């Protein structure tokens, strides 16, 4: 079952399935290393939920919820 990255719970792991959104959004996210088949985990969220920090390839990456909703994942 595919869900958005913002639906992932703390410390859960998932694999990126695809990137949705406009061409500019897709390019931005792909340039950050968010490509299909990559494993991600939700590391933490800001007090009001925006931004979120994910762990990808051993590095922390902060994303706005607006961008994270375009990252479609499947939980492992």
Key words describing this protein structure:
single chain; 76 residues; alpha+beta; 2 helices; 41% strand
Describe the structure.
The protein has 76 residues and is an alpha+beta fold. Helix content is 17%, strand content 41%. The protein is built from two helices and six strands, in the order ββαβββαβ. The chain has a six-stranded antiparallel β-sheet. Strand 3 (39-45) and strand 4 form a beta hairpin. The longest helix is centred in the middle third of the chain and has 9 residues, at 23-31.
How do the helices and strands line up, and which of them pair or pack?
Elements (H helix, E strand, L loop, with lengths): L2 E2 L8 E7 L3 H9 L7 E7 L6 E5 L2 E5 L1 H4 L2 E5 L1
Antiparallel strand pairs: 1-6, 2-3, 2-6, 3-4, 4-5
User: Would you report the number of β strands?
Assistant: 6
Helical/strand content category: alpha+beta
Strand content is 35-45%
Biggest sheet descriptor: 6 strands, antiparallel
Q: Alpha-carbon distance between the termini?
A: 10 Å
Report the C-alpha radius of gyration, rounded.
Answer: 11 Å
Mean residue pLDDT = 94
What's the helix count?
Answer: 2
Which ranges are low-confidence, i.e. pLDDT below 50, for 5 or more consecutive residues? none
The amount of helix comes to 10-25%
Shape: globular
Helix/strand order = EEHEEEHE
